[in-house]
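Lab notebook page, bench 4
Experiment: in silico fold of construct C2
Operator: M.H.
Input chain length: 160 residues
Purpose: comparison with the prior construct
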Amino acid sequence: MGLENCQFESRNMHKTWKKPLHKRKIWKKTSKIARLVYYMQPLVDHLQDVWMQPLPFPTMLKIAYTFLLGFLILMPLIFQLIVVLVYFGIFQYVSERHSWFHFGENWDLLGGLSKLWSFEVTNKKHQLYATMCFDRYHVIIAVISSTVDYIRMALLFVYA
């Protein structure tokens, strides 16, 4: 009985695939951009719903959520890049330790990472300037996000 059921489903699927305007045939003709737009519609709808939430859900959390979601979506690409960089670093380490090959300054991944790890601003004027810039941009970001929240709240009261 199971074999007859399987053959019946196979015949029905064959009839479905042979229809002239079946979705699969249309899908094969669509461009890659149209496919990307088709698959991105649920994500854009979700982000739009998140950004249209009322005031108790602050703008800073919306920004953080949007960046986290973007990071998770790009994770397959980021993971491949990290794997390539790790293997390049291993190759560079082994080749330099055994004097096989020395990398130039532009390709020195390990040297760049060690400089980045040990980076420190020693000039007191530059330290003060960097601290002031970070504080300034922190205040600007907080002001803009709270302004967006209050404008949305005012519009909610006006149009509700």
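Observations: The chain is about 80% helix and 0% strand. The chain has three domains: 23-52, 59-119, 120-160.
Next step: discuss at group meeting.
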